[in-house]
Amino acid sequence: MTRLLVFGGNSLVGSHFLRTTRHPITAAGRTRPDGTSVTDFAEIDLEDPSAIRTLVARSDAEVLVNFTAATKVDLVEKERPSGPPSPEGPAYRINAALPEALAQATRAAKRYLISFSTSFVFDGLRGPYSEASRPSRFSDRVSWYGWTKGVGERLVRTADPTAVIVRIAYPYGSPYGEKPDFARRIADAFRDGTSPPYFDDQQITPTWIPDISRAIERLIDLRPTGVLHIASPNATSPFEFARGVVTEIGGDPSALRAGSMAEFLRREGATPRPRRGGLLCTKARVAGLKLTTWKDGIHEYLQSGGLA
Ligand SMILES: NC(=O)c1ccc[n+]([C@@H]2O[C@H](COP(=O)([O-])OP(=O)(O)OC[C@H]3O[C@@H](n4cnc5c(N)ncnc54)[C@H](OP(=O)(O)O)[C@@H]3O)[C@@H](O)[C@H]2O)c1
Fold first, then answer.
1. Is the CB of 116 under 6 A from ligand 1?
2. What is the whole-number distance in angstroms between the Cα of residue 240 and the centre of ligand 1?
3. Residue ranges per domain, the chain?
């Protein structure tokens, strides 16, 4: 057993891990993770780097896992500075400054940091991207969310080269937490008769959330450094994925409409998102992790009662 200090335990991804791991956990953040067996909670202002450093220095946790992020892509886009990118705003503080403070603290205290990131660090012109691919160097080609996460990655790597950065994409497959995942949003909208058009000209590799929880267990054992991708081994489009979800729940996929991301991105004020995106997961295979294809994932999600 390894003692863990977990940030963002209420998140979509973190809430699954907290319910499946057997390691003893101290959760930290502004909200106590509910519905879990975690009893040890440190209330802390995550926008205060010195409070983070003090907490980590005093903690006896060997491994830190950070799920915290400002993830509402269109909302975060409103924080984009009008001039050149600058280190300011709540999203920057959570997506870049917090991971840096954690990495400085783990480096100083000789702990292992698992830090989460996203396929949105890439501009999506030439995906899928390998672990060796570099995040976009041009802030105007990615969302402000993707930019701040990319800065966070760079700051973590500089502050603590022993840390691992785990990139994921369009996570789905957790019945826990308040935020519906990618597959559940599709199923809910279909049942409500409010399905939007789904892009058929976008390439994505959705991540099965139970794969993430399994990967974290492996990372705690192996402690690799650098970047690791966890995603479906085969790519799809949101339209094809939505058709798969609707078929699984017994609906008629021909009721779904296709949309064009190319057209969407040309609209005035559209938030940039990767069109030809996706993640290649070379290191996961090397680490002995078997990743779930998106088709198997939605099938398993239904079988486990998660899409009911
Ligand atoms: N969801 C996606 O589509 C997606 C895709 C790719 C990568 N990722 C990455 O995966 C990781 C987990 O994402 P997620 O979607 O599971 O996250 P999420 O459900 O949006 O949850 C975000 C977490 O961050 C915490 N948080 C945000 N701002 C905070 C602040 N100012 N102070 C304290 N806590 C704050 C929230 O705490 P409260 O509970 O207190 O609000 C919550 O626990 C992130 O690194 C994200 O970038 C997500």
1. yes
2. 26
3. 4-303
| Residue 11 CA, ligand 1 centroid: distance in Å | 5
**Residue 284 corresponds to which tokens in the numbers above?**
């996961």
DSSP labels, 82-137: SSS--S-SHHHIIIIIHHHHHHHHHHHHT-EEEEEEEGGGS-SSS-SBPTTPPPPS
Does the predicted TM-score (pTM) go above 0.85? Answer: yes
Q: Is 274 in the pocket of ligand 1 (CB under 6 A)?
A: no
Question: For domain 4-303, which CATH number applies: 3.40.50.850, 3.40.50.10260, 3.30.70.240, 3.40.50.720?
Answer: 3.40.50.720
Q: Which residue, chain included where needed, has tokens 């209330």?
A: 43
- Determine if ligand 1 sits within 6 Å of the CB of residue 212: no
d(CA 294, CA 304): 15
pLDDT single digits (tens) 29-44: 999 998 888 889 999 9
